[in-house]
Design goal:
By secondary structure, the chain is mainly alpha-helical. The protein has one domain (3-68). 58% of the residues lie in helices and 12% in strands. It has helices at residues 24-38, 44-68, and strands at residues 3-6, 18-21. The radius of gyration is 12 Å and the shape is globular.
C-alpha cells in the first residue's frame, strides 16, 4: 500500500499514526482493512489503526470530491 505515515509528535498525537492515502487502489485496500478491523476484537493499537484509516479514507474522498466538483 502506498501511503505516508507519521508517528508521534509529528502527527500531533503521540499514540496514533496519521495516514495519507496516495492511490485509489490503496483507498480500496484501506476500506477492506477498516471492515476487517470493525469485525474483530480490537486492542488499543488496532483502535488507533482503525481511526487513522477512517481519517485517511475521509480525507481521500474529500480531496477527490473537490477535484471532481
Amino acid at each position: 500500500m502506498r501511503a505516508r505515515v507519521e508517528h508521534g509528535a509529528a502527527a500531533g498525537d503521540p499514540t496514533r499514526p496519521v495516514l495519507a492515502i496516495e492511490t485509489a487502489e490503496d483507498c480500496e485496500r484501506a476500506r477492506h482493512r477498516i471492515a476487517a478491523l470493525r469485525d474483530s476484537t480490537r486492542g488499543e493499537d488496532e483502535e488507533h489503526e482503525l481511526q487513522a484509516l477512517l481519517d485517511a479514507v475521509r480525507n481521500w474522498e474529500s480531496d477527490h470530491a473537490a477535484r471532481k466538483g
